[in-house]
Amino acid sequence: MKLFKIIGLSFLGMVSMGTYAQELDVNLQLRPRYEYRNGFKSPMPNGEKATSFVSQRSRLNFNYKQEKLKAKLTFQNIRTWGDVATTTQVDKNGIALFEAWAQYDFDTKWSARFGRQVISYDNQRIFGEIDWAQQGQSHDAAVFSFHSNNHQLDLGLALNATAENLLEPQTAYTTNYKSLQYAWYHTHLSKLNLSLLFLNTGYQFEKSIGTLEVDFKQTFGTYLTFKNKKWDTNLGLYGQTGKSDGKSVGAWYAGVNLGYAVTHTFNAELGYEYLSGKNQNDGSSTIKSFNPIFGTNHGFNGFMDYFYVGNHVNSVGLQDGYLKLKYTQNKWQFNVIPHVFSAPNTVLDASNKKMERYLGTEVDVNASYTLQKNIIASAGYSQMFASKTLERLKNVADAANTNNWVWVMVSFSLNLFTLK
Asked: Are 30 and 57 in contact (CB under 8 A)?
C-alpha cells in the first residue's frame, strides 16, 4: 500500500505543472469464477466428458482527473488456475493493458479521448464492453464527444496495423478490423430516450494472390427506450449493408422488450429478437446473416452462448422469444430466464430435406448476494434442451444428451486509495 501511495504522489508531482485541482484514484478488481461445462456453446457429443475450471481476472485501475484532463490506465492479468506451475518464473498470459487513454475537455460541451478504451452504447447489442468475458473488450481509437443538455453526439475512428511498417505488408491484417468510423447520437425526450448509430467497419482480405483489399460493412439503426413508474420498454432496429470478403451484405435485426414492475421487488419482462439469416439451400453469394459485431452477446440469446459468441455467424439466423423474471430483496437478487429458439430460415438434413425450425429451449437461473458494498457473490445454472435441428447446425451426434452449465463467481472491487 505504501509503495502505491509513493507511486501515486510521484505521478501527481510529474503532471502538476500549475495550480489545477487534481485527483488520483487507484482501485483493484479481483474476480475468480468457477465453471462446470457440460454442453456449453454446443450440445455435448457422445462419449465426451464434462469439464470444470477456475478462471480469474485481476485488474489494477488508475484514474486521474484534472480541471480539463482525465486519464485512465488499467492493467490486467487473465489466468486459469493451474495454467502455470506453482514455481513458475514467467506467467503464461503476463500483464496486458486493458485501457490506456487520455481525455481533454475543450469546454463544457466538447471533449476528445485518445487511446485504448471501452466503447459501449445503449443496451450493448452493437457496441459493448463484454464484461462477462474475463478479458473484456476495448478498442484503440479516438472519440470526439459533443454533449449539451439532453443531447450527445460521439464521433469515433480507428486505424489498425500489425506494427510500425515501412512498407505495406504482403499479408492481410486479420487480427482485428482494419479501420472503423462511427457516429452515435442520443437524446432524452421526457420519458423517451432515442439513440441513432451509424458504424462503418473495414476488414482487409486477400482478394487474389498478392492483392489485398479492404471491404467496408455498414451497420446502422436506432434504439429507443420508454420508462415510467411501472413500465420499461425498449426497441432496437438495425440494418447491415456494404461488402465483406468481396460479397455483398444485406441483413437486419429487430429486438423488442416489454417490462413491468409487478411490485417494488418483482419485475417481469417479455422479449423477442430476430436476427436475419440465410436459407441453407440459397445459392446466392450475398451475406444475409446479421452480425452483432462488437456486442456483449453473452447477455442475449441465453447464457450458454450457443449463438453469436464466437459462433453462429453467417448462419441461418435466429428467433429468440424469452421471459425474464427478477426478484430483489435486501441484498439478494434472483433471476429466471427461459428462452425458446427457432431458425428463421431453412435448415437441411443430411439428405437435403427441410428440418423443423425449432432449435431448443434454454432455461437460465442465477442469484447474487451483496456481502458488502464492494464484494458480490453470484452463481448460476443453465440447461439447454436441444432439438435435432440444433444438433444438425452444431454438427453434434446426439442432442438428446444432457446439456448444462454451472458457474460460481466472487467479485471484489477494492478502493486502494485516493489522492487529492
From this structure: yes
Longest dimension (CA), the chain: 77
Distance CA 365, CA 206 (A): 45
Instruction: Please give the Cα distance from 280 to 203 (Å, whole number).
Output: 25
87: cell is 514455481
User: Contact 156/119 with Cβ under 8 angstroms?
Assistant: yes
User: Which pLDDT belongs to residue 195?
Assistant: 98
Q: Which amino acid is at 174?
A: T
The whole model's pTM is what?
Answer: 0.91
Instruction: Tell me the C-alpha to C-alpha distance, in Å, between residue 381 and each of 39, 98, 318, 371, 386.
Output: 13, 29, 23, 21, 16
- The three cell numbers of residue 62 are 488508475
Q: What confidence score (pLDDT) does residue 8 get?
A: 56
Closest CA to 279 of 342, 341, 340, 344: 344
CA distance 129 to 124: 8
How far apart are alpha carbons 352 and 279 in whole angstroms? 12
- Alpha carbon distance 392, 389 (integer Å): 5
Cα end-to-end distance, the chain, whole Å: 17
The owner of cell 428440418 is 355
Cα–Cα distance between 244 and 178 in angstroms, integer?
A: 12
Checking if the pLDDT of 179 tops 90, the result is yes
Contact 312, 293 (CB under 8 A): no
Residues 293, 187, 182, 146: is their CA dihedral positive or negative?
negative
Pick from 152, 151, 59, 158: which is nearest to 114 by CA? 158
pLDDT on residue 84: 93
Taking the C-alpha atoms of residue 35 and residue 382, their distance in angstroms, rounded to an integer, is 11
Mean pLDDT of 177-193: 95
